[in-house]
Amino acid sequence: MATAILALGANIGDPAYQIEQAIAAIAANPAIKLVKASTVILTPPWGKTDQNDFHNAAIAIETSLSPEALLEVCLTIEESLGRIRVEKWGPRLIDIDLIAYNRLELETETLTIPHPHAHERGFVLDPVREIAPDVAQWLVERKR
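and the corresponding structure tokens:
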């Protein structure tokens, strides 16, 4: 089993509920075990700042899925919850990012692990610090 960290965010609709629904859908997958969930925090938008604040959280999971298969599960859950990709860094019903998978470093056409911007985003690092401080530290230190 691999340990992975997922970051979740939303800023339209009922963001806290959508994060809760996404976590429930992730945990319902038989190849995934929810280990720990952070509290939901409210943060200003990043990248595109003329939008509502975001609700953000992170979860630690154990999974038998490969990184690529886990990403596909996340994308499918986003779609099932109504996510439509319109604008980079724009408003969203739900966003689920694969932040870390063990301490694997991987770059493919569709996936980069660890997430390439995790180390510079407080809205990712703060929830990750709450559930996996060693992973948060690793994300920051590997970019120095």
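(Above: one complete record from the training split.) The CA atoms of residues 37 and 131 lie 7 Å apart.
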